[in-house]
Structure formats: C-alpha cells, structure tokens
Amino acid sequence: MKSLANVTDRNEIMQRISALTPSAQRVWGSMTVEEVICHLSDAFHLALGERAAKPVKMGVPGKVMKMMALRLPAPWPRNVPTVEEMRQGGGGTPPNTFEADRTRLLEALERFCASPGLERNPHPFFGAMSRADWMRWGYLHADHHLRQFGV
C-alpha cells in the first residue's frame, strides 16, 4: 500500500504537486487548482496539530470508516464534503499566489513526513490515528486531489 512513509511514494506525490500549473482544469469537484493546493496544505497543517477541526459524527464509527478509507484498495469517492475548517469558501485558507501556495504545500508535506508526533492529533472523521495511518492518509488524500486535476 502506498504511503508517504515510503520515500518513493513521497517523491511521486511531490513530483505530481510540482507538475500542477495554474491552468490545470478539474475533472470533477468544485475547487480550483489554487484552492486544492491550499486545501492540501491546510490538511497537512491539521495533521501536524497547527490547525483544528471539530470531530465529525457519522453513521459509521470512525474506526470502521478509517479502516475502509485507509485499507480498502479502491479510490476515494468523489465530491465527499470536507470539514468546514478546511473547506474553501469556509474556514480553509484562501489562495494567494500559485507558486507561494505550492511552495507552502511542499514544505508542509515535508514537515508532515518528518514529524515524530502525528499520533497525538486526531483526524476529524477517523479519530485516533497512528503514524502509519497518517502516512497512508497523507498519500491517499494528496492522490485523491491530484487525480482531480489529472496528475
């Protein structure tokens, strides 16, 4: 299973982020490429404990949802709403300049991968996360939004 804990997988995601351009058009969803860059950065900052989001109650227990999202060999479904604190047009960081925002995302990804204390921070949908869970989530979340732009 791909994970940001694996250097090859991490480099793949970083190269795909670097391949994004301001003219990239979405295949699905409503976020622009600039908004996705900010959303991904916000999500890594959340995992690092630098942003907060309220826990989300769902019809399925967080442990079950986490197992399905992180372990099943299927792409994440499209157009699933995010938490308000990460939503573009809501509490998410609005885009500034493309290059500065992309640099901020790549820096956040590197800090996320190097952080020793990720397990201290819960995920708003999944609850408690191990470092391995966060690394798997980081790959899948980035991959999901990069596929949204065909990269």
Short account of what is shown:
The chain is 48% helix and 0% strand. It is mainly alpha-helical and 151 residues long. The two termini are 19 Å apart.
Structure notes:
By secondary structure, the chain is mainly α. It has one domain: Four Helix Bundle (Hemerythrin (Met), subunit A) (Up-down Bundle), CATH 1.20.120. Helix content is about 50%, strand content about 0%. It is built from five helices and no strands. It has helices at about 5-20, 35-45, 60-70, 100-115, 130-145. The longest helix is centred in the last third of the chain and has 17 residues, at about 100-115. The mean pLDDT is about 95.
What attributes characterize this protein structure?
151 residues, mainly alpha, Four Helix Bundle (Hemerythrin (Met), subunit A), globular
Number of domains: 1
Report the structural category.
mainly alpha
**SSE ordering:** HHHHH
Low-confidence stretches: none
Biggest sheet record: none
- CATH class category: Mainly Alpha
Distance between the termini: 19 Å
The name CATH uses for the topology is Four Helix Bundle (Hemerythrin (Met), subunit A)
Assembly type: single chain
**With helices defined by DSSP (H or I, 4 residues minimum), what is the helix count?**
5
Q: Identify the overall geometry.
A: globular
| Fraction of residues in helix | 40-55%
| Chain-averaged pLDDT | 96
| CATH 2nd-level architecture | Up-down Bundle
Beta-strand percent range: under 5%
